[in-house]
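Quick review question:
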């Protein structure tokens, strides 16, 4: 069964495909491609903690009209790759290896990494892990410094689970109305059968490892970064996110703030997001 997607106004310049590749440990991982014809840019998109590639399809359709082919990679344990262990990943190294292998499988010698919400962590960490061939990074309301967190009781449970292998699952502290106030998109999120609401303790540990890697090396990233923030975001801390990304080398960070938007600007401000990404890519050297 394919993942549910919002209906987008398809462009004649776009073609949707499903494919698979061999991820870390030999795991077969499926992904979707929204292919532009002709193609001017290649984007590798990493989704949020609860979502999957389908949440970005309308934006990817719009980007295809601008000549951008987008690889919508569903993280292991999510979306098209939800089974057999929903919400699970063994380590940060495994997640990064999945991205490396997809880049190799698809022949992405020049790629723009795009991370939405939690996916901003993995996109940025992947750019630091393998900067060769990365043209730029686009971060859409990235979960680099979240406002939400586990309760103390959940943290204690995570610690106990890690001592026993880390496969116990815990509720993600995000509710649907934190993503958007728009009824159409809220209904989609609430009724999405592939929305991930629980993740394993060892996945949560992998998140901490990604955080440490980013904080230790962010000042070394050699490529331009486009940051999108939403003025009414209830999920991420905009101020502390800016402070973290201000550690990038001078001149590499561009910021777009959508003051009236909530977290899910890929739903609420699709056309504006597409225009801003397209303009940014026109400024980035090949």
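Suggested answer, residue by residue:
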């Amino acid at each position: 069964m394919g993942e549910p997607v919002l209906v987008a106004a398809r462009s004649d310049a776009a073609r949707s495909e499903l494919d698979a590749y061999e991820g870390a440990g030999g795991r077969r991982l499926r992904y979707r491609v929204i292919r532009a014809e002709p193609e001017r840019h290649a984007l590798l998109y990493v989704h949020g903690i609860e979502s999957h590639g389908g949440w970005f399809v309308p934006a990817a359709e719009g980007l295809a009209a601008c000549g951008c082919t987008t690889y919508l990679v569903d993280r292991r344990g999510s979306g098209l790759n939800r089974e057999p262990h929903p919400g699970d990943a063994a380590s940060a190294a495994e997640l990064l290896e999945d991205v490396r292998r997809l880049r190799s499988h698809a022949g992405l010698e020049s790629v723009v990494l795009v991370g939405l919400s939690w996916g901003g962590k993995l996109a940025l960490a992947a750019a630091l892990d393998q900067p060769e061939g990365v043209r730029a990074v686009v971060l859409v309301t990235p979960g680099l410094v979240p406002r939400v967190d586990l309760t103390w009781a959940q943290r204690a449970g995570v610690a106990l689970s890690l001592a026993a292998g880390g496969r116990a699952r815990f509720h993600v502290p995000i509710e649907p109305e934190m993503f958007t106030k728009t009824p159409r998109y809220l209904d989609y999120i609430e009724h999405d059968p592939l929305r991930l609401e629980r993740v394993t303790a060892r996945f949560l540990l992998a998140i901490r490892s990604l955080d440490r890697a980013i904080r230790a090396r962010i000042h070394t990233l050699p490529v331009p970064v486009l940051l999108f923030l939403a003025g009414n975001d209830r999920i991420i801390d905009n101020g502390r996110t800016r402070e973290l990304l201000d550690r990038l080398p001078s001149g590499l960070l561009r910021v777009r703030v959508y003051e009236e938007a909530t977290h899910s600007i890929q739903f609420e401000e699709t056309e504006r997001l597409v225009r801003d990404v397209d303009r940014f890519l026109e400024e980035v050297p090949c």
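Why it works: The first strand starts at residue 14 and ends at 22. The beta strands are 14-22, 28-36, 41-46, 68-73, 111-116, 134-140, 169-171, 198-200, 225-230, 253-258.
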